[in-house]
Amino acid sequence: MPKTKKKATPKFQVGDVVKEKERVSLLVDSPNTRITAKKYGRPRTNGVVKKVFTKKDRSGSAYFFYVIDWKDGRESEHAQMRLTLASDGSSQ
């Protein structure tokens, strides 16, 4: 008898305060072969989840996406894996 998977639930709800995880890139200097990690992208302030929805890939797996209303006035769409819940003391 095949096992049935539990239905996935979103990690964040509408109204939750979230922030974007830091982006890190590896840079390789070829003459000295030094590897350094460097942060890139604009640092974001906290934002509020405005909308939760799912997208499916070619294989039919569903992934949660969120529309975030950032405190700097911008609005953007992010995958669940790019966001983290903002701690209570870090509301910027």
List the helices and strands and how they pair.
Elements: E1 17-20, E2 24-29, E3 34-39, E4 47-56, E5 62-70, E6 75-79, E7 83-85
Antiparallel strand pairs: 1-4, 1-7, 2-3, 4-5, 5-6
State which percent range the strand residues make up: over 45%
**Backbone CA Rg:** 17 Å
Work out the count of structural domains. Answer: 1
Count of individual helical segments: 0
- Content-based structural category: mainly beta
Order of helices and strands: EEEEEEE
Largest beta-sheet details: 5 strands, antiparallel
Strand order of the largest sheet: 6-5-4-1-7
Fraction of helical residues: under 10%
Q: Report the uncertain regions.
A: none
Observed structural traits:
92 residues; mainly beta; 5-stranded antiparallel sheet; two-stranded antiparallel ribbon; 0% helix
Structural description of this entry:
Strand 4 and strand 5 form a beta hairpin. The relative contact order is 0.28. The protein contains no helices and seven strands. It has one domain. The chain is an all-beta fold. The strands form two sheets. A five-stranded antiparallel sheet has the order 6-5-4-1-7, with no helix packed on it. 0% of the residues lie in helices and 47% in strands.
Offer a concise description of the structure.
By secondary structure, this protein is mainly β. Helices cover 0% and strands 47% of the residues.
